[in-house]
């Protein structure tokens, strides 16, 4: 027998062994067919379930049905990722937020989701609350398959069902092409909605309650959650919403995707009138390479359907009789050191603040600089810049939207995460940086740290789950404007022994500089 034949036999044998035998793992009957996952005895996992399909730059369509039993034992690829040059910044973003990266690589065939359930949960058992996770990444990169978002701990410890999804990002998700109708520009948001619709139609088969679905997300994922709240699908497919470090309705306008599309067309050398067809014809990785090297940004636009310009105004005008938005219970929050990852290496506070703030209100720059210099002196300049970015982009928007929600009678809670641990620091002094709470909430933090880390994780995870189980009663602390502080300011190298995990506080000391930005946020309502 030749070596080639032996190799082929070995490959076929491996493939046969890698596929679960029908009936071996937990099995569910879905609208598209039957799927078999895996179980460790306490948690059942169904990975890589297809919820949609889409050609490049087209709106997603429901995934087709399949024959036989679908193998849901392995993750499927992430959508195409984009990490911006220059090389140093690109490598830094990868090392901080993408190592280890997507376990199955990346592909344009990426509209898959993952379901984690307590073992044995089924349609015939008592239905469980569902937590629907939308990842962050600046609408440039990210995937629901990262180890950081493994839902095993949540499902095992809190008796909830966790769903993590993929959606298209960067040019593949928010192309900005003038040849696409306005309603097909925010493809990433359409992907999220289709995944949510899939959950609403299928989650009962996993033992999940379609009437108790809570959205939660961080950063751009949090923005995606808020967009679903302010531009809700009908009928409403969720009962609560948790927004971690990201508010879309109060954001200052970003760079224009339409301008990036024009630059992309030039860089790709498209000479034809049909530039959309020209870009579609490029190999995926060639398109990705152009977008990265040209440093092009493709972000969500106001389309009047998935993302409304009037989100904040609609919230303020919302009443039970004329809701305008989804009047579901909400939980907002931010971290103590959000800004550090965005200003790494910055040394000129004035130059950075001028770039950060809109040019039409540059007169506020001196007020901002003076106030932070007084409050943070003698903090290093970089720390002052980080604090400005953190409060302007995350902390103050969380405060304002939480309080405005409460003002119109929407049950509203707020948290502030203020803990840092040696085994999760991404650079020296990074503190409670942007996204650092996620591994505690999911229970995916590295083991072997101080006991206080495990205590914080246990409490936060339970409170997130409590919110999902009964959004009207909330996570277990007083509603806004009160704020729950997690972590007691513990920093890397400290044990946290004797420190409380959670304290309640009036937010005055946290929000004392938010008045500086009120004019900017108000202007953003009418941009």
UniProtKB/TrEMBL annotation:
Top enzyme class, one word, equals hydrolase
Q: Name one GO molecular function term.
A: cholinesterase activity
Q: Which residues form the active site?
A: 219 (acyl-ester intermediate), 338 (charge relay system), 434 (charge relay system)
Pfam families reported for this sequence? COesterase
Q: Which residues form the signal peptide?
A: 1-18
Where do the Carboxylesterase type B domain residues begin and end? 26-470
Which keywords does this Swiss-Prot/TrEMBL entry list? Disulfide bond, Hydrolase, Signal
Cite the EC number. Answer: 3.1.1.-
| Family statement drawn from the similarity comment of this UniProt entry | Belongs to the type-B carboxylesterase/lipase family.
What is the name attached to this protein's record?
Answer: Carboxylic ester hydrolase
């Amino acid at each position: 027998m030749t070596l080639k034949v032996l190799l082929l036999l070995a490959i076929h044998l491996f493939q046969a062994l890698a596929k679960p035998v029908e009936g071996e793992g937990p099995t569910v009957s879905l609208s598209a067919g039957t799927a078999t996952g895996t179980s460790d005895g306490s948690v059942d996992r169904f990975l890589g379930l297809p919820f949609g399909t889409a050609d490049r730059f087209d709106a997603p369509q429901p995934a087709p049905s399949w024959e036989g039993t679908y193998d849901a034992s392995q993750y499927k690829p992430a959508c195409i990722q984009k990490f911006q040059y220059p090389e140093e910044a690109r490598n830094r973003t990868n090392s901080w937020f993408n190592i280890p990266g997507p376990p199955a690589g990346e592909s344009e065939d990426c509209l898959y989701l993952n379901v984690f359930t307590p073992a044995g949960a089924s349609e015939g058992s008592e239905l469980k609350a569902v937590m629907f996770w939308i990842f962050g990444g600046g609408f440039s990169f990210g995937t629901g398959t990262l180890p950081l978002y493994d839902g095993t701990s949540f499902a095992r410890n809190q008796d909830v069902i966790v769903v993590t999804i993929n959606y298209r990002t960067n040019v593949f998700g928010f192309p900005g092409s003038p040849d696409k109708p306005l309603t097909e520009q925010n493809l990433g948001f359409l992907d999220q909605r289709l995944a949510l619709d899939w959950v609403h139609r299928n989650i009962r088969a996993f033992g999940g309650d379609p009437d108790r679905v809570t959205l939660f997300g961080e950063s751009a994922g949090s923005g995606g959650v808020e967009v679903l709240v302010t531009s809700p699908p009908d009928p409403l497919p969720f009962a609560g919403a948790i927004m971690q470090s990201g508010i879309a309705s109060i954001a200052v306008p970003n760079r224009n995707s339409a301008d990036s599309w024009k630059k992309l067309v030039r860089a790709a050398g498209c000479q034809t009138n049909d530039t959309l067809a020209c870009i579609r014809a490029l190999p995926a990785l060639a398109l990705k390479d152009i977008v990265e090297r040209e440093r092009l940004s493709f972000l969500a636009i106001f389309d009047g359907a998935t993302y409304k310009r009037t989100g904040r105004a609609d919230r303020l005008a919302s009443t039970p009789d004329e809701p305008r938005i989804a009047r579901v219970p909400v939980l907002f929050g931010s971290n103590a050191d959000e800004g550090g990852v965005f200003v790494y290496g910055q040394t000129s506070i004035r130059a950075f603040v001028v770039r950060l703030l809109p040019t039409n209100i540059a007169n506020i720059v001196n007020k901002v600089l003076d106030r932070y210099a007084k409050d943070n002196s003698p903090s290093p300049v970089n720390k002052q810049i980080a604090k400005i970015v953190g409060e302007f982009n995350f902390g103050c928007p969380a405060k304002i939207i939480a309080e405005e929600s409460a003002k119109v009678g929407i049950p509203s809670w707020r948290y502030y995460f203020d803990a840092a641990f040696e085994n999760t620091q991404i650079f020296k002094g990074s503190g409670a940086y942007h996204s650092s709470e996620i591994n505690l909430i999911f229970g995916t933090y590295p083991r072997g740290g101080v006991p206080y880390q495990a205590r914080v994780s246990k409490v936060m995870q339970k409170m997130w789950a409590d919110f999902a189980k009964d959004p009207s009663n909330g996570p277990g602390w007083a509603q806004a404007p009160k704020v729950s502080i997690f972590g007691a300011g513990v920093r890397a190298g400290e044990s946290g022994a004797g420190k409380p995990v959670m304290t309640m506080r009036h937010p005055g000391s946290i929000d004392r500089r938010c008045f500086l930005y009120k004019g900017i946020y108000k202007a953003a309502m009418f941009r």
